[in-house]
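#lab-general

N.A. 3:47 PM
ok so I finally got the sequence cleaned up, no stray characters, all 333 residues accounted for. can someone with queue access submit it? mine expired

B.Y. 3:52 PM
send it over

N.A. 3:53 PM
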Amino acid sequence: MKALLKMREVQLALCTVALIILVGTRAPVFVTGSSLANLLTDSTLLIMLALTQMLVIVTRGVDLSVASSLALAGMMSALLASRFPELPLPLVMLAAVAIGLLLGLINGYLIGYLDLAPIVVTLGTMSVYRGLVFVLSGGAWVSSHQMPADFIAFPLARLFGVTHLVWIAALAVLAAWYVAKHSRFGRDLYAIGNEPFSARYVGIPIAGRLMWTYGLSGAMAGLCGYLWVARYAVAYTEIAYGFEFTVIAACVIGGISIAGGSGSVAGAVLGGLFLAVIGNALPVVKVSPFWQSALTGVVILTAVLINARGGRPIGRQILPLHLNKSNATGSAA
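B.Y. 4:20 PM
back already:
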C-alpha cells in the first residue's frame, strides 16, 4: 500500500478527488451527476492533446504549435463544411486529421531530419500556422448558422448516455496506452529520451521516430480542431489561443519529465483532468477567473519541484538531443 501511495499518478488522483470534494462542500451543485458529467466532457480535448504532447516530451522535445495546428485545422474544417454542406461528416473529420498530420510532419521533418531544436521549430510554426488561420478566413468568423447541423451536433451527441467527445477521448487514451506500453514505436521514444546516443547505436531510426511523433501530435490537434469548432459552434482566428501552454502544464503536472525519457499515459490524463477541475471549480466558488492563471502557475511550479526531487540523477540528461548528435559525430571522427 505504501508503495502504491508513493506513485505520482495515485497521489495526483487523490489530490483531484480531494479537490472535487473540497469544492463540493462549498458548492454542492459541483458534485451533482450532471456537473461531473460536464466536467468530464470539458476535460476531453485537453486530455487528448496532452496524450500526444506526452509522447513528444518523452523524446526531450516540445510542441508549441499544437494550439495553432488545432486552430488551423478547425478553421479549415469549418470553412469546408460551410462551403460544401453536402460533404459527409466523416470526410470533413478525416480532412481535419489529415491537415493536422501534415502540419505535425512538417515539424517532425525539421526536427528529426534537419536536426533543429524543437522549441525553435515549433515556436516558429506556431506563428506561421496561426497566421494562416487569419489568411484563410480573411479574419472573418464562421458562425453556427453557416455550418451544417450534423457538423455541430456530433461532439455532444450521446451514445449509451455518454457524449461522443468522451468516447473519442477514451479511444485516444487506449491508443496512447498501447503505443507507449506495448509497441516498439513507444519503447523507441523512451529510449531516445533516456539515452539518444545509445538509441542510435542500437539502430533506432531517431529521425523517423521524431517525425512521426510530431505527426501524431499534429493529427490529434487536427481532430481536436474539428471537435473544438463543432462543440462551440464557431470558428474564429483566436481559437485555442495560448492553449498550448495549458497542454504542456497538464503533462508537467502529470509527472512527465521535461528532461525526457519519463512519463505515463495515466499521468497525462490525470494532469488534464486536474486542470479541468480547477478551471470548472473557480466559477462555481465565485473566484475571479483571473486567479486561474496564478493558481495554475503555482501548481506547475509545485509539480516541477516534485519532479526535480523525485527525478533521475542529473548527468543522464544534461545535453539536448541535437548536442548529443554533434558529440557522437565528433567522437566518431
